[in-house]
Protein backbone atom coordinates (compact mmCIF):
# COMPACT_ATOMS: atom_id res chain seq x y z
CA UNK A 1 0.00 0.00 0.00
CA UNK A 2 1.51 3.27 -1.12
CA UNK A 3 0.72 5.87 1.52
CA UNK A 4 1.90 8.70 -0.71
CA UNK A 5 -1.19 8.08 -2.80
CA UNK A 6 -3.39 9.18 0.09
CA UNK A 7 -2.61 12.78 -0.68
CA UNK A 8 -3.43 12.42 -4.36
CA UNK A 9 -6.70 13.88 -5.55
CA UNK A 10 -7.17 11.04 -8.02
CA UNK A 11 -7.83 8.47 -5.32
CA UNK A 12 -11.44 9.61 -4.77
CA UNK A 13 -14.42 9.28 -7.07
CA UNK A 14 -16.96 12.04 -7.59
CA UNK A 15 -19.30 10.36 -5.10
CA UNK A 16 -16.60 10.42 -2.46
CA UNK A 17 -15.81 14.07 -3.07
CA UNK A 18 -19.30 14.98 -1.92
CA UNK A 19 -18.86 12.93 1.23
CA UNK A 20 -15.45 14.34 1.98
CA UNK A 21 -16.79 17.86 1.58
CA UNK A 22 -18.38 17.26 4.98
CA UNK A 23 -15.02 16.44 6.55
CA UNK A 24 -14.83 20.01 7.81
CA UNK A 25 -17.77 19.12 10.05
CA UNK A 26 -15.66 16.47 11.78
CA UNK A 27 -12.80 18.91 12.24
CA UNK A 28 -15.08 21.57 13.69
CA UNK A 29 -16.57 18.99 16.04
CA UNK A 30 -13.07 18.06 17.11
CA UNK A 31 -12.26 21.70 17.82
CA UNK A 32 -15.45 22.15 19.82
CA UNK A 33 -14.68 18.97 21.75
CA UNK A 34 -11.23 20.28 22.70
CA UNK A 35 -12.70 23.64 23.68
CA UNK A 36 -15.34 22.05 25.92
CA UNK A 37 -13.08 19.45 27.54
CA UNK A 38 -10.29 20.92 29.59
CA UNK A 39 -8.55 17.68 30.48
CA UNK A 40 -9.07 15.71 27.25
CA UNK A 41 -10.91 12.93 29.08
CA UNK A 42 -11.42 9.94 26.77
CA UNK A 43 -12.64 6.34 26.89
CA UNK A 44 -9.36 4.52 27.60
CA UNK A 45 -9.74 4.11 31.40
CA UNK A 46 -13.28 2.72 31.02
CA UNK A 47 -12.21 0.42 28.20
CA UNK A 48 -9.37 -0.86 30.35
CA UNK A 49 -11.82 -1.60 33.17
CA UNK A 50 -14.15 -3.46 30.80
CA UNK A 51 -11.30 -5.60 29.47
CA UNK A 52 -9.99 -6.18 32.98
CA UNK A 53 -13.42 -7.43 34.08
CA UNK A 54 -13.73 -9.82 31.14
CA UNK A 55 -10.22 -11.24 31.55
CA UNK A 56 -10.58 -11.47 35.34
CA UNK A 57 -13.54 -13.83 35.04
CA UNK A 58 -12.93 -15.67 31.77
CA UNK A 59 -10.76 -18.51 33.09
CA UNK A 60 -13.01 -19.08 36.07
CA UNK A 61 -16.10 -19.00 33.85
CA UNK A 62 -14.73 -21.94 31.86
CA UNK A 63 -14.03 -23.74 35.12
CA UNK A 64 -17.58 -23.07 36.33
CA UNK A 65 -19.03 -24.47 33.11
CA UNK A 66 -17.03 -27.68 33.63
CA UNK A 67 -18.12 -27.87 37.28
CA UNK A 68 -21.82 -27.28 36.57
CA UNK A 69 -21.77 -29.80 33.71
CA UNK A 70 -20.25 -32.34 36.07
CA UNK A 71 -22.90 -31.72 38.72
CA UNK A 72 -25.77 -31.91 36.21
CA UNK A 73 -24.45 -35.30 35.09
CA UNK A 74 -24.79 -36.54 38.67
CA UNK A 75 -21.21 -36.69 39.94
CA UNK A 76 -20.19 -35.81 43.49
CA UNK A 77 -19.35 -32.20 44.31
CA UNK A 78 -15.92 -33.12 45.72
CA UNK A 79 -14.94 -34.82 42.46
CA UNK A 80 -16.37 -32.05 40.28
CA UNK A 81 -14.30 -29.42 42.09
CA UNK A 82 -11.12 -31.22 40.99
CA UNK A 83 -11.93 -31.17 37.27
CA UNK A 84 -9.80 -28.89 35.15
CA UNK A 85 -7.22 -28.43 37.92
CA UNK A 86 -3.76 -29.82 38.52
CA UNK A 87 -4.63 -31.03 42.01
CA UNK A 88 -5.70 -34.59 41.36
CA UNK A 89 -4.14 -37.19 39.05
CA UNK A 90 -6.51 -39.89 40.31
CA UNK A 91 -7.72 -42.21 37.52
CA UNK A 92 -11.31 -41.95 38.77
CA UNK A 93 -11.31 -38.17 38.39
CA UNK A 94 -9.70 -38.45 34.96
CA UNK A 95 -12.49 -40.78 33.87
CA UNK A 96 -15.09 -38.27 35.05
CA UNK A 97 -13.28 -35.50 33.19
CA UNK A 98 -13.33 -37.56 29.99
CA UNK A 99 -17.12 -37.84 30.32
CA UNK A 100 -17.73 -34.20 31.25
CA UNK A 101 -15.35 -32.36 28.91
CA UNK A 102 -17.26 -32.96 25.62
CA UNK A 103 -20.50 -31.55 27.04
CA UNK A 104 -18.71 -28.61 28.67
CA UNK A 105 -16.84 -27.94 25.42
CA UNK A 106 -20.18 -27.76 23.58
CA UNK A 107 -21.40 -25.05 25.96
CA UNK A 108 -18.15 -23.10 25.61
CA UNK A 109 -18.29 -23.39 21.82
CA UNK A 110 -21.84 -22.02 21.66
CA UNK A 111 -20.75 -19.08 23.84
CA UNK A 112 -17.93 -18.35 21.38
CA UNK A 113 -20.41 -18.54 18.49
CA UNK A 114 -22.79 -16.12 20.20
CA UNK A 115 -19.97 -13.68 20.95
CA UNK A 116 -18.69 -13.94 17.36
CA UNK A 117 -21.78 -14.20 15.14
CA UNK A 118 -24.60 -12.36 16.92
CA UNK A 119 -22.77 -8.98 17.24
CA UNK A 120 -22.50 -8.53 13.45
CA UNK A 121 -25.99 -7.05 12.90
CA UNK A 122 -25.86 -4.94 16.06
CA UNK A 123 -22.42 -3.60 15.19
CA UNK A 124 -23.61 -2.51 11.75
CA UNK A 125 -26.78 -0.78 13.01
CA UNK A 126 -25.20 0.88 16.03
CA UNK A 127 -22.17 1.87 13.96
CA UNK A 128 -24.41 3.74 11.54
CA UNK A 129 -26.35 5.23 14.45
CA UNK A 130 -23.10 6.39 16.09
CA UNK A 131 -22.06 8.20 12.92
CA UNK A 132 -25.27 10.22 13.05
CA UNK A 133 -26.07 10.71 16.75
CA UNK A 134 -22.81 10.34 18.63
CA UNK A 135 -20.20 7.94 19.98
CA UNK A 136 -20.87 8.20 23.72
CA UNK A 137 -24.46 6.82 23.70
CA UNK A 138 -23.35 3.77 21.72
CA UNK A 139 -20.52 3.02 24.15
CA UNK A 140 -22.99 3.35 27.03
CA UNK A 141 -25.48 1.02 25.32
CA UNK A 142 -22.80 -1.61 24.71
CA UNK A 143 -21.47 -1.12 28.25
CA UNK A 144 -24.94 -1.61 29.72
CA UNK A 145 -25.25 -4.83 27.72
CA UNK A 146 -21.96 -5.98 29.22
CA UNK A 147 -23.23 -5.04 32.69
CA UNK A 148 -26.41 -7.10 32.21
CA UNK A 149 -24.32 -10.06 31.07
CA UNK A 150 -22.11 -9.89 34.14
CA UNK A 151 -25.05 -9.36 36.45
CA UNK A 152 -26.47 -12.62 35.05
CA UNK A 153 -23.13 -14.44 35.37
CA UNK A 154 -22.70 -13.23 38.95
CA UNK A 155 -26.23 -14.33 39.84
CA UNK A 156 -25.69 -17.77 38.29
CA UNK A 157 -22.46 -18.26 40.23
CA UNK A 158 -24.12 -17.21 43.47
CA UNK A 159 -27.10 -19.52 42.94
CA UNK A 160 -24.80 -22.41 42.06
CA UNK A 161 -23.69 -22.45 45.70
CA UNK A 162 -27.19 -23.62 46.69
CA UNK A 163 -28.71 -25.38 43.68
CA UNK A 164 -27.55 -27.11 40.53
CA UNK A 165 -27.46 -24.73 37.57
CA UNK A 166 -27.80 -25.99 34.02
CA UNK A 167 -24.62 -24.79 32.26
CA UNK A 168 -26.63 -23.69 29.22
CA UNK A 169 -27.87 -20.72 31.26
CA UNK A 170 -24.36 -19.31 30.89
CA UNK A 171 -25.00 -19.20 27.14
CA UNK A 172 -28.13 -17.08 27.65
CA UNK A 173 -26.19 -14.72 29.89
CA UNK A 174 -24.11 -13.53 26.91
CA UNK A 175 -27.11 -12.49 24.81
CA UNK A 176 -27.53 -8.95 26.33
CA UNK A 177 -23.95 -8.02 25.44
CA UNK A 178 -23.91 -9.69 22.03
CA UNK A 179 -27.14 -8.22 20.60
CA UNK A 180 -25.96 -4.56 20.72
CA UNK A 181 -22.72 -5.54 18.98
CA UNK A 182 -20.47 -6.81 21.77
CA UNK A 183 -16.78 -6.01 21.68
CA UNK A 184 -16.82 -5.14 17.93
CA UNK A 185 -19.13 -2.14 18.39
CA UNK A 186 -17.41 -1.12 21.62
CA UNK A 187 -14.00 -1.05 19.95
CA UNK A 188 -15.30 0.41 16.68
CA UNK A 189 -17.05 3.32 18.37
CA UNK A 190 -14.10 4.19 20.58
CA UNK A 191 -11.70 4.11 17.63
CA UNK A 192 -14.16 6.29 15.68
CA UNK A 193 -14.15 8.70 18.62
CA UNK A 194 -10.35 8.84 18.47
CA UNK A 195 -10.59 9.57 14.74
CA UNK A 196 -12.92 12.50 15.49
CA UNK A 197 -10.71 14.20 18.07
CA UNK A 198 -7.30 13.72 16.45
CA UNK A 199 -5.49 14.91 13.36
CA UNK A 200 -3.25 13.14 10.87
CA UNK A 201 -0.16 13.82 12.98
CA UNK A 202 -1.28 12.21 16.24
CA UNK A 203 -4.07 9.80 15.26
CA UNK A 204 -1.95 6.65 15.04
CA UNK A 205 -0.31 7.46 18.37
CA UNK A 206 -3.68 7.85 20.09
CA UNK A 207 -4.98 4.65 18.53
CA UNK A 208 -1.89 2.92 19.86
CA UNK A 209 -2.80 4.17 23.33
CA UNK A 210 -6.28 2.65 22.97
CA UNK A 211 -4.77 -0.67 21.87
CA UNK A 212 -2.38 -0.56 24.82
CA UNK A 213 -5.25 0.09 27.24
CA UNK A 214 -7.09 -2.98 25.91
CA UNK A 215 -4.02 -5.19 26.26
CA UNK A 216 -3.20 -3.81 29.71
CA UNK A 217 -6.71 -4.55 30.95
CA UNK A 218 -6.58 -8.09 29.57
CA UNK A 219 -3.12 -8.77 31.01
CA UNK A 220 -3.95 -7.34 34.44
CA UNK A 221 -7.24 -9.23 34.64
CA UNK A 222 -5.65 -12.53 33.62
CA UNK A 223 -2.95 -12.35 36.28
CA UNK A 224 -5.17 -10.88 38.99
CA UNK A 225 -7.68 -13.72 38.62
CA UNK A 226 -5.48 -16.26 40.37
CA UNK A 227 -4.83 -14.07 43.39
CA UNK A 228 -8.43 -12.90 43.73
CA UNK A 229 -9.53 -16.55 43.88
CA UNK A 230 -6.91 -17.32 46.53
CA UNK A 231 -8.09 -14.45 48.71
CA UNK A 232 -11.85 -14.59 48.11
CA UNK A 233 -14.33 -16.83 46.25
CA UNK A 234 -15.69 -17.37 42.75
CA UNK A 235 -18.78 -15.27 43.44
CA UNK A 236 -16.64 -12.45 44.86
CA UNK A 237 -14.54 -12.53 41.69
CA UNK A 238 -17.62 -12.02 39.51
CA UNK A 239 -18.89 -9.29 41.84
CA UNK A 240 -15.54 -7.53 41.45
CA UNK A 241 -15.76 -7.82 37.66
CA UNK A 242 -19.30 -6.40 37.71
CA UNK A 243 -18.19 -3.49 39.91
CA UNK A 244 -15.40 -2.67 37.45
CA UNK A 245 -17.98 -2.42 34.66
CA UNK A 246 -20.18 -0.16 36.79
CA UNK A 247 -17.24 2.14 37.54
CA UNK A 248 -16.40 2.29 33.84
CA UNK A 249 -19.98 3.23 32.92
CA UNK A 250 -20.15 5.92 35.61
CA UNK A 251 -16.83 7.33 34.40
CA UNK A 252 -18.14 7.55 30.82
CA UNK A 253 -21.48 9.04 31.82
CA UNK A 254 -19.98 11.75 34.04
CA UNK A 255 -16.65 12.68 32.50
CA UNK A 256 -16.43 11.82 28.79
CA UNK A 257 -17.63 14.44 26.32
CA UNK A 258 -19.02 13.22 23.01
CA UNK A 259 -17.11 14.14 19.86
CA UNK A 260 -20.30 14.50 17.81
CA UNK A 261 -22.90 17.14 18.62
CA UNK A 262 -26.32 16.08 17.27
CA UNK A 263 -28.76 18.70 16.08
CA UNK A 264 -30.81 20.47 18.73
CA UNK A 265 -34.03 18.68 17.75
CA UNK A 266 -32.48 15.21 18.07
CA UNK A 267 -33.72 14.07 21.47
CA UNK A 268 -32.37 10.80 22.85
CA UNK A 269 -35.75 9.05 22.73
CA UNK A 270 -36.39 9.82 19.07
CA UNK A 271 -32.76 9.07 18.24
CA UNK A 272 -33.01 5.60 19.80
CA UNK A 273 -36.25 5.00 17.89
CA UNK A 274 -34.35 5.66 14.67
CA UNK A 275 -32.07 2.75 15.54
CA UNK A 276 -34.73 0.40 14.17
CA UNK A 277 -35.98 2.65 11.38
CA UNK A 278 -35.89 1.78 7.71
CA UNK A 279 -34.11 5.07 7.11
CA UNK A 280 -31.06 3.87 9.00
CA UNK A 281 -31.03 0.60 7.07
CA UNK A 282 -31.39 2.57 3.83
CA UNK A 283 -28.44 4.72 4.84
CA UNK A 284 -26.32 1.61 5.46
CA UNK A 285 -27.25 0.20 2.05
CA UNK A 286 -26.50 3.49 0.32
CA UNK A 287 -23.15 3.67 2.07
CA UNK A 288 -22.26 0.21 0.82
CA UNK A 289 -23.37 1.03 -2.73
CA UNK A 290 -21.84 4.50 -2.83
CA UNK A 291 -19.50 4.92 -5.75
CA UNK A 292 -15.87 4.91 -4.68
CA UNK A 293 -12.60 4.70 -6.49
CA UNK A 294 -11.17 1.23 -6.90
CA UNK A 295 -8.13 2.33 -4.88
CA UNK A 296 -10.22 3.03 -1.77
CA UNK A 297 -12.15 -0.25 -1.97
CA UNK A 298 -8.95 -2.25 -2.45
CA UNK A 299 -7.22 -0.63 0.53
CA UNK A 300 -10.23 -1.10 2.82
CA UNK A 301 -10.58 -4.78 1.94
CA UNK A 302 -6.84 -5.35 2.26
CA UNK A 303 -7.04 -3.97 5.79
CA UNK A 304 -9.91 -6.33 6.65
CA UNK A 305 -8.12 -9.35 5.14
CA UNK A 306 -4.87 -8.48 6.91
CA UNK A 307 -6.65 -8.09 10.24
CA UNK A 308 -8.40 -11.41 9.71
CA UNK A 309 -5.12 -13.20 9.00
CA UNK A 310 -3.53 -11.65 12.10
CA UNK A 311 -6.46 -12.86 14.20
CA UNK A 312 -6.21 -16.32 12.64
CA UNK A 313 -2.50 -16.57 13.46
CA UNK A 314 -3.18 -15.42 17.02
CA UNK A 315 -5.04 -18.70 17.52
CA UNK A 316 -1.65 -20.36 17.99
CA UNK A 317 -1.80 -19.15 21.58
CA UNK A 318 -4.43 -21.82 22.26
CA UNK A 319 -1.76 -24.53 22.06
CA UNK A 320 1.19 -22.50 23.33
CA UNK A 321 1.14 -23.98 26.83
CA UNK A 322 0.79 -27.55 25.55
CA UNK A 323 3.83 -27.02 23.33
CA UNK A 324 6.06 -25.55 26.05
CA UNK A 325 4.95 -28.18 28.55
CA UNK A 326 5.70 -31.03 26.17
CA UNK A 327 9.01 -29.77 24.74
CA UNK A 328 10.49 -27.74 27.61
CA UNK A 329 8.55 -29.22 30.57
CA UNK A 330 7.27 -25.81 31.59
CA UNK A 331 4.55 -25.52 34.21
CA UNK A 332 1.72 -23.02 34.03
CA UNK A 333 3.61 -20.65 36.30
CA UNK A 334 6.64 -20.50 34.01
CA UNK A 335 4.47 -20.19 30.91
CA UNK A 336 2.63 -17.36 32.64
CA UNK A 337 5.93 -15.49 33.03
CA UNK A 338 6.59 -15.89 29.32
CA UNK A 339 3.13 -14.54 28.44
CA UNK A 340 3.69 -11.60 30.77
CA UNK A 341 6.93 -10.67 28.99
CA UNK A 342 5.40 -11.12 25.55
CA UNK A 343 2.29 -9.05 26.28
CA UNK A 344 4.28 -6.34 28.05
CA UNK A 345 6.46 -5.88 24.96
CA UNK A 346 3.37 -5.50 22.75
CA UNK A 347 2.02 -2.86 25.14
CA UNK A 348 5.36 -1.02 25.07
CA UNK A 349 5.38 -1.16 21.27
CA UNK A 350 2.05 0.70 21.24
CA UNK A 351 2.89 3.13 24.05
CA UNK A 352 6.52 3.89 23.15
CA UNK A 353 7.31 2.34 19.78
CA UNK A 354 4.61 4.07 17.75
CA UNK A 355 5.25 7.59 19.17
CA UNK A 356 9.00 7.17 18.69
CA UNK A 357 8.76 5.93 15.11
CA UNK A 358 6.15 8.54 14.17
CA UNK A 359 7.63 11.61 15.87
CA UNK A 360 11.35 10.96 15.57
CA UNK A 361 11.60 9.05 12.29
CA UNK A 362 8.30 10.20 10.74
CA UNK A 363 7.58 6.72 9.39
CA UNK A 364 4.23 6.21 7.59
CA UNK A 365 1.53 3.96 9.00
CA UNK A 366 1.95 1.35 6.29
CA UNK A 367 5.62 0.94 7.20
CA UNK A 368 4.72 0.52 10.88
CA UNK A 369 2.25 -2.21 9.95
CA UNK A 370 4.81 -3.99 7.75
CA UNK A 371 7.47 -3.91 10.50
CA UNK A 372 4.99 -5.24 13.04
CA UNK A 373 3.81 -8.14 10.89
CA UNK A 374 7.38 -8.97 9.84
CA UNK A 375 8.33 -9.10 13.54
CA UNK A 376 5.56 -11.65 14.11
CA UNK A 377 6.91 -13.78 11.24
CA UNK A 378 10.46 -13.77 12.62
CA UNK A 379 9.27 -14.44 16.18
CA UNK A 380 7.17 -17.45 15.10
CA UNK A 381 10.02 -18.98 13.08
CA UNK A 382 12.43 -18.40 15.98
CA UNK A 383 10.06 -20.16 18.38
CA UNK A 384 9.78 -23.10 16.02
CA UNK A 385 13.57 -23.46 15.86
CA UNK A 386 14.12 -23.07 19.62
CA UNK A 387 15.69 -26.02 21.43
CA UNK A 388 15.72 -24.44 24.92
CA UNK A 389 13.08 -22.52 26.83
CA UNK A 390 15.22 -19.40 27.25
CA UNK A 391 15.29 -19.04 23.47
CA UNK A 392 11.55 -18.30 23.50
CA UNK A 393 12.22 -15.31 25.75
CA UNK A 394 15.01 -14.24 23.39
CA UNK A 395 12.71 -14.59 20.37
CA UNK A 396 10.00 -12.38 21.81
CA UNK A 397 12.54 -9.91 23.22
CA UNK A 398 14.34 -9.45 19.89
CA UNK A 399 11.08 -8.79 18.04
CA UNK A 400 9.77 -6.07 20.32
CA UNK A 401 7.96 -4.08 17.61
CA UNK A 402 5.10 -6.57 17.37
CA UNK A 403 1.50 -5.43 17.80
CA UNK A 404 1.62 -2.00 16.13
CA UNK A 405 -0.31 -3.06 13.04
CA UNK A 406 -3.81 -2.63 14.51
CA UNK A 407 -3.41 1.07 15.29
CA UNK A 408 -1.60 1.71 12.02
CA UNK A 409 -4.21 0.00 9.84
CA UNK A 410 -7.14 1.69 11.58
CA UNK A 411 -5.42 5.01 11.06
CA UNK A 412 -5.00 4.26 7.35
CA UNK A 413 -8.75 3.59 7.08
CA UNK A 414 -9.53 6.92 8.73
CA UNK A 415 -7.67 8.71 5.92
CA UNK A 416 -9.88 7.07 3.30
CA UNK A 417 -13.36 7.46 4.78
CA UNK A 418 -15.44 10.50 5.71
CA UNK A 419 -16.34 10.86 9.38
CA UNK A 420 -19.97 9.99 8.60
CA UNK A 421 -18.91 6.43 7.72
CA UNK A 422 -16.05 5.70 10.13
CA UNK A 423 -18.04 3.86 12.82
CA UNK A 424 -20.05 1.93 10.23
CA UNK A 425 -16.90 0.60 8.60
CA UNK A 426 -15.03 -0.07 11.85
CA UNK A 427 -18.08 -1.89 13.24
CA UNK A 428 -18.60 -4.24 10.32
CA UNK A 429 -14.84 -4.79 9.86
CA UNK A 430 -14.39 -5.77 13.51
CA UNK A 431 -17.49 -7.96 13.37
CA UNK A 432 -16.05 -9.81 10.35
CA UNK A 433 -12.67 -10.23 12.05
CA UNK A 434 -14.52 -11.39 15.17
CA UNK A 435 -15.70 -14.46 13.26
CA UNK A 436 -12.14 -15.68 12.71
CA UNK A 437 -11.64 -17.29 16.18
CA UNK A 438 -14.28 -19.85 15.21
CA UNK A 439 -11.84 -21.15 12.59
CA UNK A 440 -8.55 -20.49 14.37
CA UNK A 441 -9.37 -22.69 17.35
CA UNK A 442 -10.28 -25.67 15.18
CA UNK A 443 -7.27 -25.12 12.92
CA UNK A 444 -4.55 -24.96 15.57
CA UNK A 445 -5.97 -27.55 17.95
CA UNK A 446 -6.37 -30.13 15.18
CA UNK A 447 -2.99 -29.27 13.62
CA UNK A 448 -1.17 -29.56 16.95
CA UNK A 449 -2.82 -32.86 17.82
CA UNK A 450 -1.79 -34.24 14.42
CA UNK A 451 1.87 -33.19 14.74
CA UNK A 452 2.63 -33.18 18.48
CA UNK A 453 4.17 -36.67 18.57
CA UNK A 454 6.73 -36.11 15.81
CA UNK A 455 7.09 -32.31 15.64
CA UNK A 456 5.31 -30.43 18.45
CA UNK A 457 6.90 -27.17 17.27
CA UNK A 458 5.41 -27.43 13.76
CA UNK A 459 2.45 -25.18 14.57
CA UNK A 460 4.89 -22.26 14.92
CA UNK A 461 5.78 -22.57 11.25
CA UNK A 462 2.09 -22.67 10.34
CA UNK A 463 1.70 -19.47 12.36
CA UNK A 464 4.65 -17.90 10.54
CA UNK A 465 3.07 -18.86 7.22
CA UNK A 466 -0.20 -17.13 8.11
CA UNK A 467 1.66 -14.02 9.25
CA UNK A 468 3.62 -14.23 6.01
CA UNK A 469 0.33 -14.21 4.10
CA UNK A 470 -0.65 -11.03 5.94
CA UNK A 471 2.73 -9.54 5.04
CA UNK A 472 2.14 -10.31 1.35
CA UNK A 473 -1.31 -8.72 1.50
CA UNK A 474 0.16 -5.55 3.00
CA UNK A 475 3.04 -5.50 0.56
What does this protein structure show overall?
By secondary structure, this protein is mainly α. It has two domains: about 210 residues, Up-down Bundle (Growth Hormone, Chain: A); about 180 residues, Up-down Bundle (Growth Hormone, Chain: A). The chain is about 75% helix and about 0% strand. It has 23 helices and no strands. Helix 10 packs across helix 11. The longest helix has 29 residues. The chain is globular and about 65 Å long. About 5% of the residues have low confidence. InterPro entries: MFS (IPR011701), MFS_trans_sf (IPR036259). Pfam families: MFS_1. GO terms for molecular function: transmembrane transporter activity. It is found in: Membrane. Keywords: Membrane, Transmembrane, Transmembrane helix.
Count of individual domains: 2
Query: How much helix, percentage-wise, in residues?
Result: over 70%
Distance between the termini: 6 Å
Reported for the largest beta sheet, the result is: none
Shape: globular
> Helix- and strand-based class?
mainly alpha
Number of DSSP helical runs: 23
- Reading off the top of the CATH hierarchy, the class of the largest domain is best stated as Mainly Alpha
Give the beta-strand count: 0
The pLDDT mean sits at 86
Q: Which stretches are poorly predicted, pLDDT < 50 over at least 5 residues?
A: 4-10, 24-28
**Secondary-structure element string:** HHHHHHHHHHHHHHHHHHHHHHH
Determine Rg (CA atoms, Å).
23 Å
> Would you identify the CATH H-level superfamily of the largest domain?
MFS general substrate transporter like domains
CATH fold annotation of the largest domain = Growth Hormone, Chain: A
Please identify the oligomeric state: single chain
Membrane topology: Multi-pass membrane protein
Keywords: Membrane, Transmembrane, Transmembrane helix
Main location: membrane
Transmembrane segments: 103-126, 138-159, 171-195, 207-229, 235-256, 295-315, 335-354, 366-385, 391-413, 425-446, 458-474
